[in-house]
Amino acid sequence: MSENNQQKNNTESDLNEVLKIRREKLAVLQESGANPFEITSYERTDMAGDIKENYADFEGKVVSIAGRLMSKRVMGKMSFADLADRSGRIQLCVKRDELGDDEYKVYKKYDIGDIVGVTGEVFTTQKGEISVRASKIVLLSKSLRPLPEKYHGLTNTDLRYRQRYVDLIMNPDVKRTFELRSRIIRAIRNYLDSRGYMEVETPILNTIPGGAAARPFITHHNTLDIDMYLRIAPELYLKRLIVGGFEKVYEMGRLFRNEGMDVKHNPEFTTIELYEAYTDYLGMMELTENLIKTVAQEVLGTTKITYQDEEIDLGQPWARMTMLESIKKYTGVDFSQTKTAEEAEELAKSIGVECDADAPKLSRGEIISLVFEEKVEEELVQPTFIYEYPVEISPLAKRFADNPEFTERFEIFITRREFGNAFSELNDPIDQKERFMSQVEKREQGDDEANMMDEDYVNALEYGLPPTGGLGIGIDRLVMLLTDSSSIRDVLLFPTMKPLD
């Protein structure tokens, strides 16, 4: 047997012994009529963090606190322990003379990980540690599994994601990330609510997966006997609401795309989409910049942040470039001089961008987009708006009247990745139907990410959609940026994982 296998077997044997001992302790408690799982509540008066932050108000005061035992040091007639609740940790001082002989014997058998309620007086030890001198301890829940000894330093990230509950117990930084996520989401809602936007809910189960170019998850509705799709975007429903007279709407929620997984992508993820009547993509640019600056300032107290060792200044005016300008800046070639797909393809080859020979032939606009993705995105570190996107890759965006091959669309790039997408919404029902038909042709040629025809949406446009600006922002990526998280899995409480079996 190899040394690694021997160590693994020894570890499993030790764990099984610990599990056995803890269950035996539980059985003894239950037989004595002290089953912790029968306790239904515990009235606590204060939180650990509040006591430590406001010690002058608590010194000498009797408090009742509750939380998990994170450490325990028994020294004869006196013991110390650390108790953690949602606000932080505080030290417990447990003396036999104050707790009583019988209760102290019971306490000594408690395990790290057990959840307890403690009543006692707040004081400071000789070493200056703010503590609670316990006069009563109640076991509220028995931990039947041992906590990892050094979970923070664990290199097995797969286990951290699978057992997030343990990750949260042992790693305060992880807990803080999700507290910040909640505050970020709240700040976004407050910003929009204060500007007259109304939060709405639209269907997650769709009969047509519209509003984006993505591969959907397919399910089946038994009663109707039809296939349905988990939504890939709420866009078309939200714009129907603008047609109906709601002039400022937003929806924050989960989207589902049956695509690859990496540090930036998870099959289900959170976005916010918002739509405002009587504005355009320039209005959305202003809103986007102000929104993200405001959220950073409110949540972090600054607009200058560090992301993966790079300084990012969200507070400065954000750069703005057309897609063609950005390609020329970073590659030196000018696609505005090309007129056909063949000319664009040759120019792309000259800078090392090859079109897939086995895929359907790309249009000029699609080639320009491909060059941008391969040569420009990696250069966009500081906040940058890239606008004027080719019409072929923007089936829901309004064309420029004086340059109809391009649309009034932009995307937001920070730290070399896209954070949001916006445009002046296409409100011409005739043009929209033609673009849907073009997307249908792509689907028939094998592009399963192309849009389907949505006759009802075209019907809605025929009633009249006012000039409208729309915006979508990836919430998970924004949280990654503002919490300096390298992977989307670090900002999702329960990321999608392949089953172990």
TrEMBL record:
Matching PROSITE patterns: AA_TRNA_LIGASE_II
Predominant place of localization: cytoplasm
Keywords from the named record: Aminoacyl-tRNA synthetase, ATP-binding, Cytoplasm, Ligase, Magnesium, Metal-binding, Nucleotide-binding, Protein biosynthesis
Cofactor note: Binds 3 Mg(2+) ions per subunit.
GO cellular component, one term: cytosol
CDD domains in alphabetical order: LysRS_core, LysRS_N
Binding-site residues for Mg(2+) 1, renumbered to this chain: E411, E418
Enzyme nomenclature, EC number: 6.1.1.6
Binding site for Mg(2+) 2: E418
A Pfam family annotated for this UniProt entry: tRNA-synt_2
Catalytic reaction list: tRNA(Lys) + L-lysine + ATP = L-lysyl-tRNA(Lys) + AMP + diphosphate
Gene Ontology MF term list: ATP binding; catalytic activity, acting on a protein; lysine-tRNA ligase activity; magnesium ion binding; transferase activity; tRNA binding
Cross-referenced SUPFAM superfamilies: Class II aaRS and biotin synthetases (SSF55681), Nucleic acid-binding proteins (SSF50249)
Keyword Transmembrane helix: no
InterPro entries recorded: Aa-tRNA-synt_II (IPR004364), aa-tRNA-synth_II (IPR006195), aa-tRNA-synth_II/BPL/LPL (IPR045864), Lys-tRNA-ligase_II (IPR002313), Lys-tRNA-ligase_II_bac/euk (IPR034762), Lys-tRNA-ligase_II_N (IPR044136), Lys-tRNA-synth_II_C (IPR018149), NA-bd_OB-fold (IPR012340)
Biological processes, Gene Ontology terms: lysyl-tRNA aminoacylation
Organism superkingdom: Bacteria
Family designation: Belongs to the class-II aminoacyl-tRNA synthetase family.
Complex formation: Homodimer.
Protein name per Swiss-Prot or TrEMBL: Lysine--tRNA ligase
Origin species: Monoglobus pectinilyticus
Gene: lysS
